[in-house]
Amino acid sequence: MKFELAPDVKKTAETVNLKLDLGLDLERVEFIRSFGSRSRAYARTLALPSQWRYILDSRKIYIVEVISEKFDRLTCEDRVYIVVHELMHIPNGMRGGLRNHSYAGFRRIRHLTRKVLSEQELC
Known about the structure:
123 residues, alpha+beta, 5 helices, 39% helix, globular
């Protein structure tokens, strides 16, 4: 597999974070694009274990990875939906944990996506 930074995804995430007032410190999140993955997912959010952060002396806590083969083929609306979904996994406290799909915010993702798209020229 090959990885590269994904500044386009970061820009979308910054807009989502601002428009939805999620309150996330995106300086502590790295956005990457992977190539050659066999995953069925379009994207995934990973939490860097505290031991790794200590050893690497890193401020980064989370990684949002988009799978290029799937994510890049999506419409703009679907890409925003995926970014909103992945940011929902990150709790407000940003201490290294991840929210699971039972979090109430996941039931509102389609509504939140429409809100972001109606207020911003992302596409």
